[in-house]
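Is this the right way to post structure tokens for a design question? Let me know if I should format differently. Anyway, here goes:
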């Protein structure tokens, strides 16, 4: 069964990676608060350590989230129709980390979001193909990426 965000997904599945990041720190915080824990821990640091253990992709997203939250910026995702990107954008919007902007065909993005069970509230959709700035954007991207292959 596919995990879908929404009203029907109230109790987290044990293999949902978010469980480790939110339930374990909550249990640790409760243990500290009740005096059961042997030492006081920094819950945010503990969560960051757990997050780092989940792999490189999570580490990259954590770094982006951290930087965006400090600078209160927008994050543009060029693969706006990818279900993984849709879910990442939803998390960023829900957490107030940044304003996500999804690039792609808005109708296709809406279809994919619906299939993935992701709401697009507070997420901006932009179709670069319909933009009068398409050539400018393409040139800027080429300038930034040309030496990276």
């Amino acid at each position: 069964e596919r995990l879908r965000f929404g009203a029907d997904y109230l109790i987290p599945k044990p293999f949902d990676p978010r469980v480790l990041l939110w339930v374990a720190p909550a249990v640790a915080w409760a243990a500290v608060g009740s005096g059961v824990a042997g030492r006081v821990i920094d819950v945010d640091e503990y969560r960051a350590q757990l997050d780092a253990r989940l792999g490189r992709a999570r580490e990259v997203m954590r770094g982006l989230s951290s930087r965006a939250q400090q600078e209160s910026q927008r994050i543009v995702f060029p693969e706006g129709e990818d279900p993984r990107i849709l879910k990442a954008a939803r998390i960023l919007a829900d957490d107030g980390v940044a304003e996500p902007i999804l690039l792609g065909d808005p109708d296709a993005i809406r279809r994919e979001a619906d299939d993935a069970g992701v709401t697009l509230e507070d997420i901006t959709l932009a179709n670069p193909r319909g933009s009068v700035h398409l050539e400018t954007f393409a040139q800027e991207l080429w300038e930034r990426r040309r030496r990276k292959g």
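Format looks fine. Someone answered above. Worth noting: The chain has a mean pLDDT of 81. Helices lie at 17-34, 43-53, 56-71, 83-95, 106-116, 134-145.
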